[in-house]
Write a structure and sequence with these properties.
The chain has about 350 residues and is an alpha/beta fold. The protein contains eleven helices and 13 strands. The protein is globular, with a radius of gyration of 19 Å. The protein binds nicotinamide-adenine-dinucleotide and UDP-4-deoxy-4-formamido-beta-L-arabinopyranose.
Length: about 350
């Protein structure tokens, strides 16, 4: 069964391709390599023994997207990861974000309808909840006004999908709202690969530990939380990837309860920044150089998932602990830097 994974050389996409192939799916990747690299296709093949078909083009190009779907009209579904995702950059360059994230989605939906490809899994985000009134946050929580153009693209995308499904009864979609994905594949052959200075906590920690950054800034310790730092629901990227396989099977096997479904992907446990640092130091044996500085603009105080609807309906549950997440991130950082030194990657 053939599945298109857009953004399949990216962080979450590459881990999902591995899980799909290991479950017997044939995978086709489309990525324009704006935030990933071509060798990841080979790394995937090294893990699974199967090289996925890969096409490099921009999904915001309508003609190229239409042509791709005409050539692959036997697809059973699409998992759409391809998007820009840097919150701060989206504030600086809102139109770049709206154009890339929304036009790509519209091109894909249009081509799915034109070629009878019925099933879409969409990468959404817990950012749609903002600072929730109730914790843990369930899928029924109201959507809050987006804090950034990036967050707004996720809210608008969910609306575009729902309107399209309303008009075309042949289409189905599942929006998966990710909490904070971290960690890497056990093989350390794929992982998170931020270009330039990382925005997210865990790659900043591992890059500091390996000596690429002098210290980590901890953004605020005066929040109303047990350790004074913001709380997030960190989830291992492999657990997250496996949920996509479950979602795809649910669609293909006709087990959806409605044509549009939404699921939270989190562990249900929240951790502060200092807890993540402690976990990293424990598993790596490395003392991390960090400084507590002022708050980062736009950070919410605390958010963690109520995953009970996903657990019950998808029969999926995040299994890996925070220590497994930080240990795998560290193993990946070390392996990647060692390989990069050898090959000048
Ligand atoms: P990533 O940047 O590693 O992967 C995205 C991939 O999409 C990249 O390989 C990039 O080159 C590609 N891409 C972007 N625009 C494209 C276009 N127009 N045409 C073709 N390819 C394009 O990001 P990720 O962390 O793997 O995130 C995947 C998805 O999950 C994104 O939609 C992101 O918004 C969403 N998400 C991520 C997180 C997170 O913390 N990583 C959390 C919630 C949601
Ligand atoms: C986690 C915690 C920071 C870096 C972002 C997006 C969200 C989603 C996931 C896509 C916070 C603290 C971080 C650093 C720090 N992405 N931190 N020093 O902000 O929860 O979510 O990524 O949808 O939309 O907003 O993740 O990893 O940036 O931060 O102290 O150098 O780590 O303040 O408390 P965040 P993050």
């Amino acid at each position: 069964m053939k599945i298109l994974v857009t953004g399949g050389t990216g962080y979450i996409g590459s881990h999902t391709v591995v899980e799909l192939q290991q479950q017997g799916f044939e995978v086709v990747i489309v990525d324009n390599l704006s935030n990933s690299q071509a060798w990841i296709v080979d790394a995937i093949a090294q893990i699974t023994g199967i090289k996925p078909h890969f096409e490099q083009f921009d999904l915001a190009d309508r003609a190229l997207t239409a042509d791709f779907f005409r050539r692959h009209n036997d697809l059973k579904g699409v998992i759409h990861f391809a998007a820009y995702k840097a919150v701060g950059e989206s504030v600086e360059k809102p139109l770049m974000y709206y154009r890339n994230n929304l036009v790509s989605l519209m091109n894909i939906l249009e081509s799915m309808a034109a070629n009878g490809v019925p099933n879409l899994v969409f990468s959404s985000s817990c950012t749609v909840y903002g600072q929730p009134d109730e914790l843990p946050v369930s899928e029924k929580a109201p959507i809050k006004k987006a804090e950034s153009p990036y967050g707004n693209t996720k809210q608008i995308s969910e609306e575009i999908i729902q309107d399209t499904l309303h008009a075309d009864k042949r289409l189905n979609a599942i929006a998966l709202r990710y909490f904070n994905p971290i960690g890497a594949h056990d093989s350390a052959l794929i992982g998170e690969l931020p270009l330039g200075v990382p925005n997210n906590l865990v790659p900043y920690i591992t890059q500091t530990a390996i000596g690429l950054r002098p210290h980590l800034n901890v953004f605020g310790s005066d929040y109303n939380t047990p350790d004074g730092t913001p709380i997030r629901d960190y989830i291992h990227v492999v657990d997250l990837a496996q949920a996509h396989v479950v979602a795809v099977k649910r669609m293909i096997e006709g087990r959806m309860k409605a044509s549009f479904e939404v699921f939270n992907l989190g562990t249900g446990t929240g951790n502060g920044v200092l807890e993540v640092i402690n976990s990293f130091e424990r598993v790596s044996g490395v003392k991390l150089n960090y400084k507590i500085v002022g708050r980062r603009a736009g950070d919410v105080e605390k958010v963690w998932a109520d995953p009970s609807w996903s657990n019950q309906e998808l029969g999926w549950k995040a299994k890996r602990s925070l220590d497994e997440m930080t240990a795998s991130a560290w193993k990946w950082e070390q392996a990647y830097r060692a390989r990069a030194k050898e090959t000048n990657q």
